[in-house]
Design brief:
The chain is mostly beta strands. The protein has no helices and eight strands. 0% of the residues lie in helices and 41% in strands.
Length: 119
Amino acid sequence: MDDYDYMMYNPNWSPDGEQIAFTTDYYGSILEYADVYVVPASATNVGISTLTPIISISDFVILDSFVAWSPDGDKIAFTAGADSSGYQNIMWIDVNTREKMNIANDSLQESCLSWVWLP
């Protein structure tokens, strides 16, 4: 596998403009099976094979491809499922500590196309 085997989706700038979160999937898989990466906005010529995902499909059965930063830039919201039922949990991950937290369990059966954080 090399960097050309991956497709990248849905880049999302952090609120301070210093980082970009994006999702990938291995070429030929379906979009719901994705990893999420965070890279410095200043990075150049960085290949996927040199990065470690902040959220990996290996942690879940289904990982959706749309992510959103919290207004303070400390967390990223995403949806993921622990089984093949199609239901997904709304979750967030702390960008610094990698701590994950469920916000709502088994609440979605469809993908979230966009997120909006509310105070």
